[in-house]
Every structure is written in structure tokens, then in C-alpha cells.
Amino acid sequence: MRRILSVLLALIGISLLINFMASLDFSRTYLSGFIWTGSVEKGYARQINESLIDANLCNLSSNSNPPRILIYYVEGLRSDIDRMRTTTYSVYDHGVWIEDIRYSDLPRISYGSIVYRVTPVVEFKKHVPVLKDTTFITVKGAYNSSSGTFLVESCGRPYIGFSDLSKFKPTEFANDGFSRIVMNHEELKEIRNLTLKIIENARSDYEKVVAIQRYLMENYRYDFNYEIKGDPVYWFLFKGKRGICKHFASAFVVMCNSVGIPARVVVGYQVKPTPGNQSVFADQAHMWAEVKFKEGWVEFDPTPPSSAKRIKTRTHVTFVDSKIMSGENFTVEGVVEHEKGPVENGFVEIYLKRNKDERGILIGTFYFENGHFKKTIRAPNVTGRYHVVAHFVGSMKYEESWSDPVVEIYEKPVFSVDIPDKTSTDFNVSGRLITMDRSVKDIYVFVDGEFYKKIKTDENGNFSVRISLERGFHEIKFVFKGSKFILPSHFEKRIEAGDIDVIIQDKKVIAGKKNRISMSVLFNKKPVEHVFINGIEYSSGENVALEIVPDRIGLIPIEIRAYGFKKVVTVKSVAATDIRYEYGNGFLRIYVVDSLGNPVNGSIYVDGMRYEVENGFLEIPVNGSVEIYYPGDEFHMPARVRASPSQLPAFIPLLLIPIPVLIGYVMYNRWVYGIDVRFEKEHPDLPLIWRVGERIRFSVSCRRNYVIRIDGRDVEFSGENEHSIVFDKKGRHVLEFVVKRGEKVKRCMTFHVDIVDNYGEAIVSVLNILESEMRKKGINPEFLTLREIIKAIGCNLKKTLSLFEDFRYGKRGNYSREDFICVFKEVMDCLRELRS
Q: Which of 40-44, 137-141, 404-408, 672-676 has the highest mean pLDDT?
């Protein structure tokens, strides 16, 4: 009961404290103006979408250029505080920081806290700016005590924050707080080696961090004109060596974590270290770092003081309605540019002014892109002569600029060009430059930033050009440089040139039966995103399972459509073969039909003797049991059957011969007619797979003469022999080792040898062993990827996975027999481990 009463009294005390502080006048204290009483102009920043002013600092490859838009006021800071945070990040994944999302802690107010007040101008939709070590804010939200940040659903009203920020002398690094760095292993190793060299003379943990910070500040340049290729941190450290705050802070944290220093990045805003009221703009967005010591997190900012000047801009109003009615809508249009071209994006304010020097009436603020703005605005309820003036508010990269009050009317032409995202390497582009002017105009075509060709439009603005490219990504740009009172215009698009490739694992199907074909549809060796196969849509071209039921034998076409391409591939439809027979009047009648009921013609073997079947029928004089073998042809599968008369033979009394005599006879036949074939392989269980042109060596041991049939071709040998053979054609070949007594076959051993163009195909065949193991465990692997199969059976098949995926997605063109053997041994080791 006492505990409950204590909690209630504490909550009442907190509520009274907050209300009391909200009523205080701080004008005569170091918290001067703590409760801000100014006004925010209606129609200004509160109408601005928060996403348009996001600096996007967590993506190191993106453009970070937040506008100079007022987003909040703050007061009550200490003179040693110059940063306010919104989020922290502890996972770096190939150039993108992933936010720390654990918000499940209980906020609290402690004595001795720094108390400050924030007044939003833009409504915060997710995160609110707070000081480091903030433990409580007067707005409903989730709290992360590790980062000292808050997650809110929405916040558009003032709030008070309480921070436990204190100074301490850091000693040793903590044992937790590490960031997870996901990037190329070799590049991370190079970063680690650089960092170890930087800190080799440091005498304490703190000196190590300071050494890394000093190295970044002294050896890299703060510059808006940076370039990123590949992993942004690696490129910044070893190639570009220039960037903005997000590159410096990210490099710092990756370097620290590479040598075992727990560090993370922090995103927020740079503010003035003053207790008085101050305005904070979107272009004050900043990223810095902090390192965890045993005493707590310590902030470090490796970004050097900026010597880069903001780029000068020019703002022009190019169109405005000639007559504006009080209280009614009118349209204003213009451009914002710098000396090298249009400003990418930003915000423009529109003012009405009686003369050039007065502040005027702010009547609208809006976002623009590609240097062009056009907006319909409601005029205020005033009358008189005014100039319509546009003000580009500036940004992190660009200076602000004002339009000249003198209005000139320009036409902005528009390109209409239809280029697909994916296209062939040689294609034609047609388009139109839409303008009121009927004169012929010059259009400049650029490919990957390089001038490609100059073409001309007709009087209607139509143009056409043929472009030839290599496979891969390309930037296509059409530029009209402008003329008198016609603004420059351009059209650009990033496209990928290439072709559709179709990989089918097994191009053979059975006629008259349901077949599941596993295939992948690739564009430039990557799975397509949407594909139509025989008119059926699939969301991805990777490992498509296509079901077909062929109604005939032969080549079956499969139509594939993706990215505007049409491609037809074929699979071979073969029929299963059925051998039926009957005895009568001393003859054996043999009927050979396929699974579709059609008669099958060709060669057939009866106890090794070759006969020709015509119209699916053969009749030969036979009374006893025989083996009938059809070897198959291009479109029919092999079949084998043992034929026996339906009536018992007359010599049934012979069955009364003593069993030992029969066993002796059998053993004698095995000894006399036995045959042993051994292939020269690196492992006894290794599948019979070789590359086209490779020599296959094998030995045959037999006491009698024997015949080797290679794809139906007979070669006769005798005794104990060492042999070899070379196949120059890809596919499955049949090797039969036959021992005869006269014309009668006494023993036959059959082997199927697979010949491949690339050992990558052999690697795929080895993986069928894994599928069999999964079925034994009751798991159907039919729709699983290799990664999912490995996870399901718990094997460590790192090398196998790498080689398989490289082959599947075309990252590697050729594989050796050593790769094949490596995969086989790794799979066999895994199976032995599972079965033990």
C-alpha cells in the first residue's frame, strides 16, 4: 500500500513540476526566454511535408541537401552543448545505416537534470530532437535509454526535456555497444590495417579514438562535390577522400569497430551553444559519432570545420498571371539555377512587394525539383500594385537568392521520350520536344555523360535517333540548350541494356505426363522481376517451377516475355516406351508403343540379338524366356523387360535338382562369366561426370571375351585391359560391358557417363544428393533455394553455396574439375555428419 501511495505522490509531483515550469518567466535567468512566446506564420513551415526536408544522412550514396527551412525553436541549452540528436544507428549495411529500434524503456525525471524547451514549427512524425542523455520529455512517446532518444507518433506542440548530461573522464572501452558492419571482407580488412597503423602509438583507449578522429580531420576534405562508387566508406577512405559529415562520421565508426572499439553514429542537428532562444533549420542536420567507455557514451565529431562555400544561385520568375484578383488564385512559375545548371531541389517562398527593398507579404512556400517551380497561390485580400518576388531559401549546399522584381515570361519546353527501363543493346529512340515555337531545334544526345550525337527536330518538335550500347547500366540524356525566351530543357533516364537469357536445368520432358521444369529467366545474369511464361505471370524469374503436359513428342516451344523482350526456347518432349509380348505357336510377338499409344519403330535387342521393329511389331521364333531391350532414340526412352512363356516348360522336373548343385552352377557362371569394371576417379563414390574432351580411363577384368558398347557401337576386347575414351559431344553416353557365350548374353554391366561443357553443371548434379537427404527428413525441397536447404539440414556448405550461386547467376563462366571434387567432398562430409 505504501509503495502505491509513493508512486501516486511522485506522479502528482512530476505533473505539478511540469505545469510550474511552463508558467515561469526565465527572462532574467540563464534560461532566458525559456518559454517561447513568438508566433509562427500561418501558411509557412507547418504545411511542409517532413519527408521533403529530411537530410537522408543514413544513406551514404544519396544526395543530402536539406533546405534552409525553419523546423523548430529551442531554448535552455548549456554553453557547452552544440548538438541535439534524433536517432542512433548501430548497423552498417553496404552504405546504409539501419536505425536502432529498441524503444521499450521507462522514461524518468532525475534531480540535477538540464531542462530545455523545444517548440516545433514542422510537425515531427517519428523522432523529436533531444539532448544527449535525455531521460524524459513532456510528450507521449517510446523511449530508448541506450541512445537517449524518443519515438513519437506525432508532435506539433512545445515540449520540455530533461537531460542527465554530465562530464566524466573516460578510461577503458566498454565490452558492449559495438556496431555490426556488413561490407566486403577484403575492403574491411584494408580499413582495419589502416586503423591499426593510425593508433599504433596511442597510450590509452581514449588516445586511440582521438588519433582516428585527428586522422580524418587532417587528411580528408569537407566538400559537397563528392563522388561515390562501390562501398561509400571504403571509397571515401581510399579513393574519393572528400565528402560531408555523414561520410566522416561513418568512416570513423567503421574504423573504430574494425579494431574492436565500440562505436555508433548519431543523427540530429548542430545548434548554437547558447541558453537563449534560437531557431534551428533543416540544413543544420548533422551526423557525428560516439564511443562507449565503461563510464558511458562519449561523443566525437570527426568532421573538420567546413571551408567549402555554399554555391551561389539565381532565382528568376518566368511567368505570372498579368492580372491578379484579390482573394483569388493566380499562377507563378520560375527557375532556380547555378552557374552549371538547375538546382536539384529545394523550397521557394513567394512574396508580394510594393517595392524591391521591403519585406513584403509572404503568400506561399513550396517545394520544387530540377530547378523549376510552378504553383497556384491564393492572393491576399489587398489591392494595389505589387511585384511578385520569388525567394529560394537556400540549403546545406546552396546559397539563398531572390528573383529580380522585373518579370520576364519564358516558355519551358518539355521532352516527351519513351525509353523502357530495360532494352536491347541496339535500339531506336523517338521523342518530341513540346514547345509553341515551330522552328527546327538542335537536340544533343549524351550517353554516360559523354556527347554521343547531335540531331534535329522537325517543325513539330519530333526527333528520332538510333543508339548502340554495351551490356550494362547507362545514363541516356537529351538536352535542348534553349533559345530566346525558350528555357533549356533536358530528359535523362538510367536504363539497362542487355538481353534475356533462359537457363533450364533439364530440357527433357515426358509426353503425356505432368512435368515440372525448373528454369531461371535472367537479364544480364540477374533474375528478372516480372516474367510471363506461356502467358502465366511470375513475380520473379528466379527458380520458376513451370508445369507442362506435352501432348506430342518433339521440340516443345516455351514463350517468355519480360521487359518488353520476347524469347522462345524449346524443351525436348520424349515418350516413355512400353514393351508388351505374347507367346504362341513357337513364336514370340513383341509390341512396342510409347506413352501416347503410338507404335515405336527402330532397333530392339532380344537376348543381345538385334532386330528391327516395324510399325511397333516384331515376331520371332522363340519358346523360352528372353530379355527384351529397347535402347531408345532421340524422342523415346529406353525400356527393358524379361519375357517368359505363360505355361510351365516341360522340363519342370529339372527343378528337383539338388539346391547345392544349382548354387554351384550359379557360382560357376559368376566366376566364368564375371566382369569387373573400375573407372579411374578421385573418389570411389564420385559421379561419372567428365568435361567434353577429357580422357576417361577405366580397367576391365574378365575371364572371357567381352564387348564394350559405347552408345550402341560395339568394340571387342579380351583379357585384363586398361582402356580410355574421349567424348567430343555433350550429353549422357551409355557404356555397356557385355559377356557372351556364342550369341547369348551371359553378363551385362551398364554405366551412364555424363559429359558436360562446364563443371558448373556437375556441381548442380551433386546437389541432388542433398535433396534426397531432405526427403528422408520429411522435408520437401522442391520450392526451396539452396540457402534454405542448407539451413534446413544444418550443414556448413560455404564453398558449395558460393560456387553454385556464381554458376546459377552467371557470375563465373568456367569451373574446373577441382571445383567439382571440392563440392562433392564437402557434401559427402556433411552427409556423414548428419548420419552420425
A: 137-141
The yes-or-no verdict on residue 718 having pLDDT over 70 is: no
Which pLDDT value is given to residue 720? 56
* Rounded (5°) CA angle 781-786-791: 85
Coarse DSSP helix, strand, coil percentages of the chain, rounded to the nearest 5 percent: 20, 40, 40
Contacts with 385 (C-beta within 8 Å, 6 or more apart), sequence order: 354
| 49 Cα distance to chain centroid | 29
355: closest CA among 407, 405, 317?
405
User: In b/e form, how buried is each residue of 800-816, taking b as 16+ CB within 10 angstroms?
Assistant: bbebbebbbeeeeeebe
d(CA 137, CA 284) in angstroms, rounded, equals 22
What grid cell was written down for 119? 517548440
Are 158 and 117 in contact, with CB atoms under 8 Å apart?
yes
d(CA 392, CA 379): 20
CA atoms within 13 A on the CB side of 520: 16
Distance of CA 237 to the CA centre of its chain: 24
- Angle, helices 798-808 vs 786-793, to 10°: value is 160
Mean pLDDT of the residues in the chain: 83
pLDDT for the residue 665: 57
Q: Which range among 439-443, 714-718, 831-835 shows the weakest confidence by mean pLDDT?
A: 714-718
Collapse the DSSP code of 262 into the 3-class scheme (helix H, G, I; strand E, B; otherwise coil) and give the result. Answer: coil
Dihedral sign for Cα atoms in the order 802, 806, 809, 815:
negative
* 98-115 mean pLDDT: 84
Burial 83-106 (b: 16+ CB within 10 A, else e): bbbbbbbbebeebebebbeeeeee
Ranges 99-108, 473-482, 612-621, most confident: 473-482
CA 134 to chain centre: 37
Which 3 state secondary structure label does DSSP give 164? coil
C-alpha 203: how far from its chain's center? 43
Compute φ and ψ for 330, nearest 5 degrees: -145, 165
Which of 552-566, 642-656, 693-707, 741-755 bottoms out in mean pLDDT, i.e. has the lowest? Answer: 642-656
Highest mean pLDDT among 272-281, 541-550, 713-722 belongs to 272-281
Instruction: Tell me which of 281-285, 518-522, 599-603, 766-770 is least confident.
Output: 766-770
Question: For residues 71 and 124, what is the distance between their CA atoms, to the nearest angstrom?
Answer: 9
pLDDT tens digits along 494-524: 999 988 888 887 788 888 888 888 889 898 8
- Which residue did the predictor score with more confidence, 293 or 549? 293
Residue 119 has a CB neighbour count (10 Å cut-off) of 19
Q: Which single residue is written with the C-alpha cell 548554437?
A: 272
> Minimal CA–CA distance to 367: which of 65, 74, 129?
65
How do strand 422-423 and strand 489-497 relate by DSSP bridges?
parallel
Phi (first) and psi of residue 531, to 5 degrees: -145, 145
Dump strand ranges (E) for 524-586.
526-527, 531-533, 536-538, 544-548, 554-562, 565-574, 577-584
Q: Are strands 565-574 and 508-510 parallel, antiparallel or unpaired?
A: parallel
Rg (CA), the chain: 40
Where does 729-816 have alpha helices with state H?
Answer: 759-766, 768-776, 786-793, 798-808
User: 621 pairs with which residues across the strands?
Assistant: 587
Strand-pairing partners, residue 539, are none
Beta bridge partners of 374: 333
3-class SS at 790?
A: helix
- Using CA atoms, how far apart are residues 284 and 391, in angstroms rounded to an integer? 19
Over range 169-180, report the average pLDDT.
92
Phi/psi for 400 (5° steps) reads -75, 160
CA distance 369 to 63: 13
Count Cβ atoms below 10 Å from residue 475 Cβ, excluding itself.
Answer: 13
Alpha-carbon distance 788 to 750, whole Å? 36
